[in-house]
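Subject: Interface between my chains keeps coming out wrong

I've been trying for a while to get a sensible model of this assembly. When I model each chain on its own everything looks fine, but I need the whole thing in one frame so I can look at the contacts. Pasting all components below, labels as-is. Any help appreciated, I'm running out of ideas.
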Amino acid sequence: MKLLEERIRKDGLVKEGNVLKVDSFLNHQMDIELFNEMGKEWKRLFSNVEINKILTIEASGIAIAAVAAQYFDAKVVFAKKSKSVNLDGSVYQAKVQSFTHGNVSDVIVSKKFLGPEDKVLIIDDFLARGCALEGLIKIVHESGATLQGIGIAIEKGFQEGGKKIRNMGVRLESLAIIESMDAASGEIVFGK
Amino acid sequence: MKLLEERIRKDGLVKEGNVLKVDSFLNHQMDIELFNEMGKEWKRLFSNVEINKILTIEASGIAIAAVAAQYFDAKVVFAKKSKSVNLDGSVYQAKVQSFTHGNVSDVIVSKKFLGPEDKVLIIDDFLARGCALEGLIKIVHESGATLQGIGIAIEKGFQEGGKKIRNMGVRLESLAIIESMDAASGEIVFGK
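Reply #2:
Try treating it as a single job with all components included. I did that and got this:
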């Protein structure tokens, strides 16, 4: 998606350790107009499949999923990263390692909000090693829902997550795929 | 706001310990159409003030703020609950006690995304004791930004948060104010 690639080039910052900072428009300060364009693009890409539920994970996937949901006739469910006292005991659960924070979280979704009747699109901001997605996919499978596809804003194409997910036979649509990036020069090369 | 009150009556569950579960439409599964109506209502209520930034806090405020932002010409910034390695050292910080989780978090906002030029509307899902709001207000004041008001989805009117915030002279617009609720009967009484 040209608009997102241009925005990453303009406002993204490449840091040492394969870190791409997009916190001025994607995951701390958020440009909701851009999210609307991303939502339209996912709708175009997934126009031929039925989707009634969008699943994401806190925190930075939530706004993107919520805005994108407006282009589908879908409710949004976000997986929570720790057990809240407000949740019933009846949850789907997966362990997820965070690339950014370097820790392992329990990720949970209430069984009330995901079941065999659901046609699910997973949406998240980043795909790197794919740990968060693997957790969400496990939860979708456990619930008996149908996974219709995954929409990612930025995929780090030089890490293994995208390949892993596509090899599972899951349809994955990343709006920007970074083939390589260089912290010294700031250069970003997009793929596909 | 009638629509929200009716929805709380229909789908909200009153639990022991002053807990109101609205996780089927507000803070786990999310009804984005409802959030759009809430956004319109806040726009109506704050139509006479300039707002260029909406500040919220992860996780359950994010979707509401993102959808509401579409009715303002505003970017959204969400305060993060723990220090991410992806953030620069340069942050505003506040300590916030969580009613739901019973712990204290460091809440941070990058200094890049809040400053004296900003006219801020704070949006969050719940107001009970007001701890999260106090943290966000402290951050807005520290940044030199102008706090134009606060929009809350559900205020627990029988707890002290609303009074505390209004006594600070901050304009607070809660879309539903619960005067009392009873876990045994499930009855909810709305105020104002």
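Reply #3:
Confirming on my end. The interface with chain B takes residues 19, 21, 23-24, 28-32, 35-36, 58-59, 62-63, 65-67, 69-70, 75-78, 80-82, 84-87, 100-102, 109-110, 112-113 of chain A (CB under 8 Å).
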